[in-house]
Structures are given as structure tokens and as C-alpha cells.
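Technical note accompanying the year-one report. For the benefit of new consortium partners, we illustrate the data format agreed upon in the data management plan: each record pairs a sequence with a C-alpha cell string. No post-processing was applied to the example shown here.
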Amino acid sequence: MSTDSNDHPLNSTNATAHGVGADLPRTIAALDEAETYRVLVTGTNWATFGHAYASAAEAPKRLAELLATDQSVRTKALDYLHHALHHQNTLYEATVPAALCVAAILPNPRTTCAVDKNHHLTTVCMRAELLHWIASVADAVTEEVDVLSRRQGFPLDDYPPAVGIRKIRPQLYSAAVAYVDDTDRQVAEAAITACIPLLDDPRLLHHRSALIPAIRQTLGTSERWQHREQAIDALDTWGEDSTGLEGQQNPFMCCDSDSPTDSATWSIDTSEGYSEPPPF
């Protein structure tokens, strides 16, 4: 998979309207933890942005901890992404610069390290989980969501965090598409799940045809029924042939813990970053 000059690569001068420096995403990818923390602090005024628990002033520290050497620290940082910056699939002001930062650190070798999931019963590749997080953020601003929101009187164009995420979809796509053919099947599937909703962007529609083989051959043959369902839905929506792909085989199984955007599978650490557990 590749991008072209029309896709506003990660060092685009129109990265976001939220004050993140134009070169911040590409810069962070090449930095160690100390430098990443410094750039995050100086790159945007996080204290002026909100998340699920008020101010995001602590975001630079928590985002830098995604690259920590300690697995438990990385896990808590990933929890923070899910439960503060994107709580219950909601977009906040701080979600926009955080998404750029997540996209920026994907190439860092430490994102291939493991994190705990399902209340520490299993471990998974953090790069895959970061891509799933990007997918969840992208899912919140699709055309389908916009249609439903307009019917309810809340168009996405009236919600600044949604506008912000829509503006940076080309940057998020550039970051995710690099892993569509990854040798780690878990990472490749996660990358495809991130690219599909991002390709709702009018600036990216021309990339759909290039992604179709990966949707069929990788996502459509996944062991996870949610991924197979997403492959079928994407192909059908795009007017492509989904013949031969099998989705959910058990009609009574409405959900399970493998859902790629199910943040409920992540444990909650309430000792830092916010003062009370999420209200669910």
C-alpha cells in the first residue's frame, strides 16, 4: 500500500486545527521517550483541551508512557487512551492531538511490545491495539454516523472534535496503511480495520480499490467474526463483490470480547489521570 502527494502526509502543514505543530507527528516517530515527552509538552497546550474527566493536562506524560519499557506502564497508558481520551467511543477535544500522536509513534519498535488485555488474562501486540484505537476514532466520524447524527439534530459539522478528526483523516490513513501488509497478522488486520472507515474521506476515496484485496484476503478470512463482518460490510457498501466471505456463523452470538473497538475489555486504573471510575 502506498500514498501519494495528494494525501497530506504526516508532516502536512494542515495537520489539525487544534494547535498541534505541523511537523509534530513525523518528529515524534523518531524520538526516544524523553524527547517525545518534551515535544508533546511544547507541541500543544494540552491543559486547554478536555477529555472524559475534565482537563487533559496529564496527556503528554500518559502518551509518552505508551513507549515505556515496563509492560504494566504501557497497559495503563493504553487504558488512558480508551477511558479518558476516547471514553465509550466519544470524541473529545484532546482526542484530536492524541490521535496524531498515536499515529506518529506507530513506527517506533516499542509499539511491537505486548500489553495486557481482558483484565490481564491475555497479552496482545500494542501496535495492533493502537491501530484498533485509531479505527474506533475513525468510526465516530463516518458518513453513516453523520447521517444518523443529522437525523437526531446533531450534525458532526457542529461538533468541533468530530470536525478535527475529519480534518486529520489523511494523516491517520497514511499512518495505518503502512501496516496493511504487515507480517504480523494481528497488526495487518488492525490496520485494515482502521483504513476502512478512514476511506470515507472524499480525499481518500481513490484508495479504496487498492485496499480491496487486503479486505478480501486478510480481513475476510480472519479468525475473528467481527473482522469478517467488517470485510463484508465494507465490500457491500463500496459496491464490491463479497461472495465467498463468511461473517458471523452463530446467529445467537451478538457480542464477544474480541470486538476490535470494545474498550470495555480494558481494565481501569483510577489512581492517576482521573478521580472516579467511568459511569458504566
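Partners are asked to follow this layout when depositing records. The first strand starts at residue 50 and ends at 51.
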